[in-house]
Amino acid sequence: MHELPQQLANGLILGALYGLVAIGYTMVYGIVQLINFAHGEIFMVGGFGALTAFLALPGGTSLWIAIPLMLLAGILVSTLVAVGAERFAYRPLRGAPRLAPLITAIGLSIVLQQLVFSFYPDAKKARVFPKIPGDPFELAGITIQRSDIFLIIAAPLCMMILGWFVAKTRSGRAMQATSQDPDTAKLMGIDTDRIIVMAFAIGAAFAAVAAVAYGLRTGQVDSRMGILLGLKAFTAAVLGGIGNIYGAMLGGLALGLTEGLATGYIQHVPGMDLFGGAAWKDVWAFVLLIVVLLVRPQGLLGERVADRA
Amino acid sequence: MTALLEVKDLRVAYGKIEAVKGISFTVNQGEVTTLIGTNGAGKTTTLRTLSGLLKPTGGTVTFDGQPLGTVPAHKIVSLGLAHSPEGRHIFPRMTIEENLLLGAFLRKDTAGIAEDVERAYTLFPILGERRKQAAGTLSGGEQQMLAMGRALMSRPKLLMLDEPSMGLSPLMMQKIMATIVELKAAGTTILLVEQNAQAALSLSDQGYVMETGRIVLTGTGRDLLGNDSVRKAYLGED
């Protein structure tokens, strides 16, 4: 069992990635009760935004300069796409039956996946993304890929900034008020349309950070990278209690840990040797979701509230 | 007497169903004006339209000399119109103090805001004792006090109270009604919507009786209390 710390570390790193993307699902749901199924594609376009910045830089640019610029470009592209989607796809449907925005979201996913081909005709195949060069380093017996350092720093930093923003700033309090009671928030003088845009924008920015982390980690981006990751992140958001930002990160970490441990250990359980290894990790992730929903339907940190639909 | 709020031939519809069918009334500066009527008479619809949450299908609303026709809901409070909604609608997962501060969301005068928070605690001491408690844990009466206190935090020219006595114990109701009297004495103009006609009319300067979207009777509070049809319909007398 000497590799346990290693499996835990792998799980947490993967989980942080899920958590960052899950924030986008949970924030938008918390404010407008909409599952933005196009969020996986918001994540994906962020990756291509970052790739575009990388390709535009002269070869041999130091990653110390390249990564911040890639991050900036990714955030810019994701945020613009998300804000545009809110304005032109979702806002006209506010007040429509819930199925309408849901179908719109699925349509938007397809549109965004196709749109990438206009810029990168070969986007279906993996496009090479830079990695942080150098051998993995060891820390207290745990091996960590250099590219993961980005995520290890970015994920807690993003959560800290978001926690501060929501709790301490005027806009953050307006956001809380809007998620708890939108009509009454308007009576207080809060421009709830602006808050909705803000929720989409923050979620998109986090997705772009995750996309850069994903690109660095796997060394590639492709037009379909948002599909499974988006689904996992959505699972993480539900797992943690949809609408709760800390729940999203917690759900992500729980999901990542489950995948890490399932990959490492399930095959050692007597009689389970067929169900272990990397091939089965997605199955265990969804098994965790089913179990949590059976025991605690509102999710880990969610509150039991009446459906407002 | 100057009219602070003037409503003329206001119409509001939910889809094809007209809930308010052309009503006209005025609220005078410094007075308490009451809309009474049964469930479904259109009272709450009227208030929600005044504060911009619903769009009128016809008529005009003039507040403090300014037409409110196209003003969006989030800009109404800055004009001096505060609304304590039916069912209280406090923010349940925020503390009492945070709820009060949201009532002053558009104000920038930190010192004045702090002063008004203290004033709310003087008006409702129980809120001051529980200022750090989540508002959702309060009793119905305490939530009503919070909703009123929150509405006052914008220093409104006109305070609209929708069913402040709904679901409250008789004792709590008395406390709320006494507060309305107190606010009026301090010079606040109030538009009150109530099903409890007795209590509301006895403290009102002006009253309007609504029935299925129309105003059917108008008079001073005292007149309406003495009116036979009002006594029959709303005060349960034969």
What characterizes the major β-sheet of chain B? 6 strands, mixed
What is the quaternary state of this protein? heterodimer
Fourth-level CATH superfamily of the domain at 3-89 and 156-234 in chain B: P-loop containing nucleotide triphosphate hydrolases
Low-confidence residue ranges of chain B: none
Number of H/I helices of chain A: 11
Radius of gyration of chain B: 17 Å
CATH fold category name of the domain at 3-89 and 156-234 in chain B: Rossmann fold
Task: Report the principal-axis shape of chain B.
Answer: globular
Helix-strand pattern of chain A, N to C?
Answer: HHHHEEEHHHHEHHH
Biggest chain contact: A-B, 18 and 26 residues
Distance between the amino and carboxyl termini of chain A: 49 Å
Order of helices and strands of chain B: EEEHEEHEHHHHEHEHEEHH
Would you tell me the structural class of the helices and strands of chain A?
Answer: mainly alpha
Strand order of the largest sheet of chain B: 6-7-8-3-9-10
Q: Indicate the CATH class of chain A.
A: Mainly Alpha
Can you summarize the main beta sheet of chain A?
2 strands, antiparallel
Topology-level CATH name of chain A: ABC transporter involved in vitamin B12 uptake, BtuC
